[in-house]
Design a protein that fits this description.
Blueprint: E1 2-12, E2 24-25, E3 28-32, E4 37-39, E5 44-52, E6 63-73, E7 78-88, E8 92-100, E9 107-119, E10 122-135, H1 144-154, H2 163-173, H3 179-187, H4 191-205, H5 215-231, H6 242-250, E11 255-259, E12 268-273, E13 280-286, E14 293-298, H7 309-314
Parallel strand pairs: 4-10
Antiparallel strand pairs: 1-3, 1-5, 2-3, 5-8, 6-7, 6-9, 9-10, 11-12, 12-13, 13-14
């Protein structure tokens, strides 16, 4: 279970005298905000999170989790996102967080904390959400903002997409989506809602909003073209493959080793990224000999891991594999 508290200030507890004992939590002084009305002149939004884990830590074996804080406006548009890692050493995990809000307009907002953990070979998530209000004297919400954004959307390429095109666009961007964004796309049922979310997805990633040209969207489309040219097989597009997904998500590998079919071994590739998580590997094997390279092992977080991949998948004399499985 998780509990989230919006606070007006959080600082370390230095055994200050005269402080209400109710404000002391796990080595911190958590000053409450009963009104849930936050003044942006304070610069930072403070929050205190408690996570009760099902597995009790012993202080020696540390488990690492990904934690994500997301700030949404009243229309559920994603305004800010912050990700960090937390370690479990005890059954109760504590995290304090600050999020800059001096640039956020007056209005109602939601702070959502989501923790991601891998269990039994799949990624599970759990979240808690709090509603509050921000008063920013220097940035009053303009009612015309959404009207102007609507005009901009109507003039964009996304407004004219049909259902099949929208489906393809969403599938193409999933490698770079946050878990939160994938959840948003999955929940939407209307075609117009999905198109507007696609528009906002790329608007949030535009590196220069003063120009009509979206540099990041152009860069990503070029990557999609590259993986289509290099990783497609049969009727399967490159961005639908494991190699395509990894390339779109992590970019060009620092090193790429290609091993063709030879004797009793299947063709395989090993990619190394030196700048990610201290250096990670991705290993792909052409299971059926038709160019369908599958990711069978990686040292990156939240990717498939199987250390015996070479003996199990590269060596062709292993048992239990039917090359016709993909056609069943």
């Amino acid at each position: 279970s998780m509990s989230l508290q919006i606070a007006q200030l959080i600082e370390e507890d230095n055994n200050q005298k005269g402080v209400n004992e109710a404000f002391k939590k796990s080595g911190f002084l958590v000053m409450p905000l009963p009104s849930l009305i936050y003044l942006s002149e304070n610069n930072n939004l403070y929050s205190y999170l408690e996570i009760l884990s099902n597995q009790e830590g012993n202080g020696k074996d540390k488990r690492e989790f990904n934690l994500q804080y997301s700030l949404y406006d009243s229309y559920k548009n994603l305004i800010k996102i912050k990700e960090k890692k937390v370690l479990q050493t005890n059954q109760i995990m504590i995290d304090t967080n600050q999020m800059l809000i001096r640039d956020v307009s007056t209005g109602t907002y939601y702070l959502k904390a989501t923790i991601f953990a891998e269990a039994n070979g799949r990624l599970d998530s759990q979240y808690v959400e709090k509603k509050f209000f921000i008063i920013n004297k220097n940035k009053i919400a303009n009612p015309n903002d959404r009207f102007l954004e609507s005009i901009s959307y109507e003039r964009s390429e996304f407004a004219g997409l049909n259902e099949e095109q929208v489906k393809m666009e969403i599938e193409q961007i999933k490698p770079i989506c946050s878990f939160q964004e994938i959840e948003q796309f999955d929940k939407l049922t209307s075609l117009d809602g999905k198109k507007r979310l696609l528009y906002r997805f790329w608007l949030n990633r535009d590196t220069d909003t003063t120009t009509i040209f979206n540099e990041e969207l152009f860069r990503y489309r070029e990557l999609v073209k590259f993986v289509d040219r290099n990783f497609s097989y049969g009727k399967t597009r490159g961005w639908q493959t494991d190699r395509g997904r990894v390339y779109l998500k992590y970019g060009k590998p620092s090193e790429r080793e290609q091993h063709p079919f030879f004797g009793e071994t299947r063709a395989y590739e090993s990619w190394f990224y030196s700048e990610i998580q201290g250096g990670v590997y991705f290993h792909f094997v052409d299971m059926s000999g038709n160019g369908r390279y599958e990711l069978v092992h990686s040292t990156a977080q939240f990717e498939v891991q199987y250390e015996n991949w070479y003996n199990e998948y590269v060596l062709k004399n292993r048992t239990g594999y039917d090359p016709n499985d993909e056609y069943k």
